[in-house]
Design brief:
Subcellular location: Cell membrane
Low-confidence stretches: 330-337
Family: Belongs to the ABC transporter superfamily.
Number of domains: 1
Helix content: 25-40%
Structural class: alpha/beta
Main location: membrane
Largest sheet: 8 strands, mixed
CATH superfamily: P-loop containing nucleotide triphosphate hydrolases
Protein name: ABC transporter ATP-binding protein
Strand order of the largest sheet: 6-7-8-3-9-10-12-11
Pfam families: ABC_tran, oligo_HPY
Length: about 350
Amino acid sequence: MPVPVLEIDDLRVTYRGSRGEIPAVRGVSLSLRPGDTLGVAGESGCGKSTVAAAVLRLLPPGTEVTGRVLLNGEDTLAMSFGRLRAVRWAGASIVFQGAMHSLNPVHRIARQVAEPLVLHEKLSRQAAEKRAVELLRQVGLPDWRARSYPHELSGGQRQRVMIAMALACAPDLIIADEATTALDVMIQAQVLRLLKGLVSERDIALVMISHDLSVLADTCERLAVMYAGRIVEQGPSREVFAAALHPYAQALSAAFPTVGDPAERRNPSGLAGDPPDPAALPGGCPFHPRCPVVMPECSTTAVRMRRAADGRHAACLRVEDQPAPAGHDEHRAHPAGQEST
């Protein structure tokens, strides 16, 4: 078996603000090997982007981070800043939502795509910009776009530029954080096809973060659903999307209507209430105040990840816990069995 490109072990992230300590991520564990594609889904505020930022230590100063984040066997949380700077772009790169805010408005596209090559590959500016044109071509942009400024490109073209930058130093891992959220459906489909093709051609590990389960189910092999800073379900993406085990994952799936079904059009499904305040989580299962199938014990019982009969995992008391097969490495197969406390 290939060595994991990314291995997250019991990651916990706590922000400090005027309201005191805010636990944004509470015991997340994941593992990706070369060529793996993992989708991370959940409502805003569930901790998805915090997990992504923690991988390369892009969190605000003063944030408390514990656990381990192994990138090709090295713990990024323990790296010196010099080593971390060398790993960013070269070992792992992030494609952020809103490329217009990530690109420098006063520099041409070629110069910005060339920047990681100058810093990490030690290419001359001329050689780096020549290579930048090739990278733009790989993501479907014509050569002349290299001379454009960001405001001269469409939203989809800017996202392609960000993907070209992410690929510049041939990283082993790409994290796409809501990279297609603000795009129209046609451009979104083009960007998703591009990402899937690059993973297949280059054997890159891909983590794709979105609130849209349908997009993740079509793009990624595995799906992890987050709620209140924890992963509450993980399994093969199409199975989770079609027949989720956790009530929250079921609600996310039901939020996407079936095209052509008049009943769903007239009576769209939804989920009452708002996500809990991470600084004041309810007792027991944090989803129980919104859960449509809540039981009395849900408000008092700390729920760990449970293994279902089909090998999938969910943090719900209604999932009957099954023993792992002999010789099975349970820790690598799914998020750590952390309790919802």
